[in-house]
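Re: Re: token formats

Sure, here are both.
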Amino acid sequence: MRLIFAGTPEFAALALQALLDAGHDIPLVLTQPDRPAGRGMKLKASPVKEIALAHHLQVAQPENLKTDSSRQIIQDTRADVMIVAAYGLILPQVVLDMPRLGCVNIHASLLPRWRGAAPIHRAIEAGDTETGITLMQMDKGLDTGAMLTRAVLPILDSDTTGSLHDRLAALGAREIVRLLPELAAGTVSAAPQDDTQACYAAKIGKEEARLDWTRPALELDRRIRAFNPFPGAFGLLEGNPLKIWLARPAPGAGAPGRILAISDGGLLIACGEGALEVMEVQKAGGRRLPISAFISGHPLKAGDCLN
């Protein structure tokens, strides 16, 4: 099929590569403008752009899709379908109507649950036991279009947003390649979403990352995993942020935030219900360290407190 691909991060890049491997004709790739990144804040191309350039595809990076010039390049492509995955720009109705078979979105949740910007984070944070990929016929709403197919993936007790992201990206790439022949043949039935079952995955804010030790250990464990790798959950140790990258619920009781025990394997920290065994941390400006390495340079004792 003749496709336009619109996407920006690694999640989308896997789908673009899979579509290329499947032999689809992709005359145009849309992606976000290059952004400053790294210590030197040099402009960096998106993962989607890097793959597109490696395959000598035409790349467009409009700031928005409101101008005549940005819309004309889409119209001139005369695509059968536009595939959209974590693109980051709103597609106006006039753009949605341009491809012959419309625009199909690869969304990392089981719609209508977790519409919005951060479905992977929010699914882990909420304690969901499963998530998946929904391929959706796009309309002008926020992830409200009719569903073309859904694929389910279990959420493991050990999953972080990083690990679940990678599995969902691979699943999304497989599903879009599988769907397109059916879409071309006209054998796909679109199912409307039940709006009464919808919930929204709001964008993650850094202000959410501070841990409230009065909450249950199970809840804090989910939040630590949901905020790994971004923005990184943290507590305050002697007034300084200490990011917590790896922890697990454990038996224990005491004043919330108080260190109950210390071993080479972890810090046992009291929570509102139960305790957390913290195994990997990072101080500001430092590296991620296992607890055994961290406490060798930062003496701690039972009774110390994280706020």
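Second one below.
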Amino acid sequence: MKKKNLLAIGLVFVLSLTLILSGCGNGSGSSDSSSSSKDSSSSSEALSGKITIGGSTALQPLAAQVAKEFMEKNPDVQIEVQGGGSGTGLSEAQAGNFDIGMSDVFAESKSNIDAKALKDYQVAVVGMTAAVNPKAGVKNLTKKQLQDVFTGKVKNWKDVGGKDLKITLVNRPDGSGTRATFDQFALDNKTPAEGITQDSTNTVKKIISETPGAVGYMALSYFTANDTSVTKLSIDGVEASDENVGSGKFPVWAYEHMYTKGEPSKLVKAFLDFMMSDDVQTKDVPAQGYLSVKDMKVQRDADGKQTDK
């Protein structure tokens, strides 16, 4: 009887030990599975793929710099940044050919664009002003004088206080957001006279610097501190500076928009979030000659109406 009891107790002990070991084994398996799941989750969160950005040449330098930094942080991501003008940025984003379309103007201002199909991200502010060849001898014009120059009423710089030198106009094409902004806020929508037309801001700057008497217009980001190849023009005695743009004293400025067709993909959204991050907005944006939207004391709507924030 005692032997039977001892045998039963032994069987119970062995069975219990087996169950305990089995439980430990299952626990270990769950831990490995959880670890594997975490590793899998971590790898799935790593960003990869390609983003195509194009449009506004005024925004292009900033977009290229931020894209470079984003790719350094995400080595499996490839970003292509190209120009083409705001009209191209909007139309190609609408067509789905650009993941992000860059524009100096609201999509609502373009009759061939379905603004409701695009999502607007205002990533920076750009000031713009006239750029003049230094030999013209002009650093400031009244708004009326500026309009007379660009509409062809004034054909020689001596008539507005400059040198005896013929005026050569350098314009941007109709689809350019820089032109739309300059026409609206500098020329009060007066039609500019015919002149040389160039799509690229860099080319416009080169022509102005090499052509005595030439005048055009550029984003402030293209005027650099030690570059005397072109003269940055003041209007009505107000310098075209970040401070004056931010306060609303200098009238020629625009939002820099990044548009997506509907809601962006996870990758594109990550890039846009990075663009609006504190590091980019406080470092890259001013370093590239733009203003952070957060620093603006005034705002504009799609109709161009400026109000205090």
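Residues 1-44 have pLDDT under 50 and may be disordered. The longest strand covers residues 118-132.
- S.
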